[in-house]
Amino acid sequence: MTDAPTPTDAPPPTTYAAAGVDVEAGDKAVELMKESVRRAQRPEVLGGLGGFAGLFDAAAIARMTHPILATSTDGVGTKVAIAQALDRHDTIGWDLVGMVVDDIVVCGAEPLFMTDYIATGKVVPERVAAIVSGIAAACAAANVALVGGETAEHPGLLEPDEYDVAGAATGVVERADILTPDRVRAGDVVLALASSGLHSNGYSLVRKVVRDAGWRLDREVPELGRTLGEELLTPTRVYAADLLSLLRADDAEVHALSHVTGGGLAANLARVLPADVLATVDRVSWTPPPVFALVGELGRVPRSDLERTLNQGIGFFAVVPESSAEAAVEHLAARGIPTWVCGSVTSLTDGAPDASVEVVRGAKGVDGGSVQLVGDHPA
Questions:
Q1: How many Å separate Cα 40 from the centre of its chain?
Q2: How far apart are the first and last CA of the chain?
Q3: Is 70 exceeded by the pLDDT of residue 329?
Q4: Whether this model's pTM surpasses 0.85
Q5: Distance CA 14, CA 23 (A)
Q6: How far is CA 85 from CA 79, 82, 217, 349, 372, in A?
Q7: Does residue 26 have a pLDDT over 90?
Q8: Is 4 a residue whose pLDDT tops 90?
Q9: Which of 98-112, 121-135, 284-298 is the least confident region?
Q10: d(CA 147, CA 144)
Q11: Residues 238, 98: contact at Cβ < 8 Å?
Q12: Are the beta carbons of 107 and 173 closer than 8 angstroms?
């Protein structure tokens, strides 16, 4: 009895590479990112890149009186589409770190370490390494250790040049030092910390405005002083180290912090206020950078929609006693963050808000305080 002949037209063996996953490219990406990751470390980190888990020595935490862990996770939304269109990937990591670690600082915690996740249709080692270089640089600026991550190749789910990024971070704070809404008092003032631009929120709106207007990303825009794409890709300012420095300063007391991200100005401030107060933010105190007016005018976007979607030039709010306002402004300015008094806090028991102005009460499930935006920006 003889073996049956093998058909000459039989399909080739199915391999992982044939399915679209290149393990060798993934290994090369890890090698290319190693040097960047080395610069984003802290003394507490144990081991190196490539382990199944990142290790962080918690001995210092154990010596705290009552340590409370804080954690946050986020991505950068559709801003990645701008990076992909411009084929520039070394800044998107700043956006990711800012979105994650700056949320942790809001409660007064120090972010300690972070992990990242990159999903892509095809692993291009140089592109992955560029993304991680931005993540690592931002972590180093925030004194946060980048202890690990994952790069996943998803052929068929994402196009070869498409990717998305996400991250998670953990921090710690003494229980007695947690910033809670009950610290805020009538008579406090609201400080605005300047953003670096659009940061990483509202890009679905921005991209639609640009698309509907038929503008190209390489268009030179005189009022921006650069191309539209360069402006839209401006990295998010990372505030963590600067705000921790302010929280530890002897001459300034901080009652609340608010990260201005999705939801815009009033909603994010309302989340960190007690239910019995009203914060009034006066638009006359600042002029939003030109990109915000450009989006509004190009898309005929109502002001209320802009303020619910974009940061309008304010990346963070700080609520402080009036006696600390000057010192806080000077402290942050010395660290390169333009800061100004933009509003005040009053008690709702002393009077109702102006009925002719929209009031935002709480947000994202938080039964918080009330916020009104009043006045007009300087011409």
A1: 18
A2: 95
A3: yes
A4: yes
A5: 15
A6: 10, 5, 8, 52, 38
A7: no
A8: no
A9: 121-135
A10: 9
A11: yes
A12: yes
